[in-house]
């Protein structure tokens, strides 16, 4: 079996070979972007349908859309990327914007209309700030794979664009990397005031010319406090037939990832640990415990609702049908 995950402190022990799962024949591969069932042309190396991989880390919105279309995939409650998405909404440093409620008629840029992050942001703008999805002006770098419910203009992305390197982090686990060229282009448009706000995949971006649109930590928590929703962006998925070939794969993988999670501090610089410690203290629980509890179910049901509202899926999925039955008991 070929599985792929992003290299982050909670998966490094697996990818580095420090932790081994001898009971299953698995080749682990590091990737820089989540897998997809049927990726865009030119990105087949990130595909599961193409046979490039048998499973791994996938965007939850992509997974739900694939599942609604009949893709033979099942998930495990291994939620590899999650957190408060309000942190990922940015404006220029000199922007007059201080609240998402001011985004009516404003230009918001994103990499992909159907990405998990964009879907979460649009949903919470409606749920928390009363901003209908059609009130802002949406701009995307990737043309929607299906007709978007909300009018979205596709930005002209120069093929040879490079731009300056910009450091970014996934805040909760200190995963450092450079913004890819698409996100660097959005930052440039923000700096040039050709956009009023951008949705990033990252909550921390090291650029002195942009800032989070929301100004206080308390505002980041509004969705969780009002709705009990703590967003999930990536999870681990597997081809359905592998559960028959390897009957214990669900329980063994969940246990394996929990063990890898125990090594995360070994890969996380001391100065990057405080954010995660504060998050856990405020929640009162560990968001990376890899379980399907009440908060996770409520969060997944909320995202399914957003997908239905935007007609990105044609039927409402149940949480249970997304996961292998054995993993529901773990």
SSE topology:
Layout: E1 2-6, H1 12-15, E2 27-31, E3 55-59, H2 60-68, E4 73-82, E5 89-92, E6 107-112, H3 116-129, E7 137-142, E8 152-154, E9 167-170, E10 175-178, H4 181-191, E11 197-199, E12 204-205, E13 210-212, H5 217-220, H6 222-227, E14 232-239, H7 241-245, H8 249-261, H9 273-283, H10 294-309, H11 319-322
Parallel strand pairs: 1-2, 1-3, 6-7, 6-11, 7-8
Antiparallel strand pairs: 3-14, 4-14, 5-11, 5-13, 9-10, 9-12
Summarize the structure in words.
It is a single chain. By secondary structure, the chain is of the alpha/beta class. The chain has two domains: about 1-80 and about 230-330, 3-Layer(aba) Sandwich (D-Maltodextrin-Binding Protein, domain 2), CATH 3.40.190.10; about 85-225, D-Maltodextrin-Binding Protein, domain 2. It contains eleven helices and 14 strands. Helix 1 links the parallel strand 1 and strand 2. The mean pLDDT is about 90.
Q: Could you state the CATH homologous superfamily of the largest domain?
A: Periplasmic binding protein-like II
Briefly, what CATH class of the largest domain? Answer: Alpha Beta
Distance between the termini: 22 Å
Note the run of SSEs as H and E. Answer: EHEEHEEEHEEEEHEEEHHEHHHHH
| Shape type | globular
The chain-level mean pLDDT equals 91
Tell me the structural class: alpha/beta
Main beta sheet, described?
A: 6 strands, mixed
In helices, the fraction of residues equals 25-40%
- Give Rg in angstroms: 19 Å
Q: Enumerate the strands of the largest sheet in spatial order, edge to edge or round the barrel.
A: 8-7-6-11-5-13
Q: Count the DSSP helices.
A: 11
How many domains? The number is 2
CATH architecture of the largest domain, by name, is 3-Layer(aba) Sandwich
How many β-strands, per DSSP?
14
């Amino acid at each position: 079996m070929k599985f792929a995950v992003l290299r982050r402190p909670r998966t490094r022990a697996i990818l580095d070979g420090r932790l081994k799962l001898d009971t299953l024949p698995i080749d682990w591969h590091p990737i820089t972007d989540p897998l997809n069932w049927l990726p865009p042309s030119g990105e087949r190396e990130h595909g599961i349908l193409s046979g490039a991989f048998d499973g791994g880390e996938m965007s939850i919105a992509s997974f739900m859309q694939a599942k609604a279309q009949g893709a033979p995939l099942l998930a495990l409650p291994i939620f590899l990327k999650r957190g408060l998405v309000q942190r990922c909404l940015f404006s220029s440093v000199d922007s007059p914007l201080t609240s998402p409620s001011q985004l009516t008629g404003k230009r918001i840029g994103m990499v992909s209309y159907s990405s998990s992050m964009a879907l979460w942001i649009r949903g919470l703008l409606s749920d928390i700030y009363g901003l209908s999805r059609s009130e802002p002006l949406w701009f995307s770098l990737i043309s929607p794979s299906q007709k978007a419910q909300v009018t979205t203009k596709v930005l002209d992305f120069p093929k040879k664009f490079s731009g300056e390197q910009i450091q970014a982090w996934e805040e909760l686990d200190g995963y450092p990397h450079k913004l890819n060229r698409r996100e660097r282009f959005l930052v440039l448009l923000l700096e040039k005031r050709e956009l009023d706000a951008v949705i990033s995949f990252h909550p921390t971006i090291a650029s002195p010319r942009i800032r989070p649109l929301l100004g206080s930590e308390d505002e980041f928590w509004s969705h969780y406090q009002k709705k009990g929703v703590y967003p999930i962006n990536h999870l681990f998925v597997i081809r359905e037939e592998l559960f028959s070939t390897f009957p214990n794969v669900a329980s063994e993988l969940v246990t394996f990832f929990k063990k890898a999670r125990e090594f995360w501090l070994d890969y996380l610089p001391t100065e990057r640990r405080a954010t995660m410690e504060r998050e856990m203290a405020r929640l009162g629980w560990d968001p990376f415990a890899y379980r399907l509890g009440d908060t996770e179910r409520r969060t997944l049901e909320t995202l399914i609702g957003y997908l239905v509202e935007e007609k990105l899926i044609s039927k409402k999925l149940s949480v249970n049908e997304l996961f292998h039955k054995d993993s529901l008991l773990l």
